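Data deposition worksheet. Section B asks for the primary sequence of the deposited chain exactly as it was used as input, without tags or linkers unless they were present during the calculation. Section C holds the resulting structure in token form. Section D is free text for depositor observations; keep each observation to a single sentence. Incomplete worksheets are returned to the depositor.
Section A, Depositor: J.P.
Section B:
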Amino acid sequence: MLFVPPMTMMDFFTKSEGVWFTQRNVHHFDSSGDESGESNLYISVVAQTDSRVETVCTQQGIDPTTATGGASFMWQANEDRGAPNPEQAAVLIDVPDDQSRRSGRLIRNQGYVEKIPVVSRYWFGQDGILTIDTDYDNNQGQERCWFITDDFRVRVSTVRMLNGVYLMTYCSERRCVTEADLEKLKVES
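Section C:
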């Protein structure tokens, strides 16, 4: 079967829903330390009617009726057990440019680099690669993400700071098998 990449942000969020095991390599050009490691990424789709859509849009002065929905992202160190820390979470809301929905704005309640509300620009290339550009108060970031298969995706990002220091990150992400998936397999066998 031919793999078809998502070409709209809501399709991307839907395809991303679930728990992902992330292996992250980080290169600091100023040698400020190593943030490489493994983590779990929890992604859930946020419906257009969810109250967080209105909250995040209103916070940025954007009409919530222009949003198509969004996603909630939570991170957790791989070795941590228990529920993820809600302090390491973000809600992203999709506000497409037009009916094609292949480009638009991502409205975040907090950014990845600076923990402030932020508006990013995104677009999907013909090849299905998602590019997200973000201007923070003191940094500029670009992230590119694409699916290799339904259960494996890659993310690369760069961060440029005002003083010229760069940070580059490469992440490979594999979808985790859930307890429900395992139970289903037990019943089917």
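Section D:
The chain has a mean pLDDT of 89.
The helical segments are 9-16, 51-59, 179-188.
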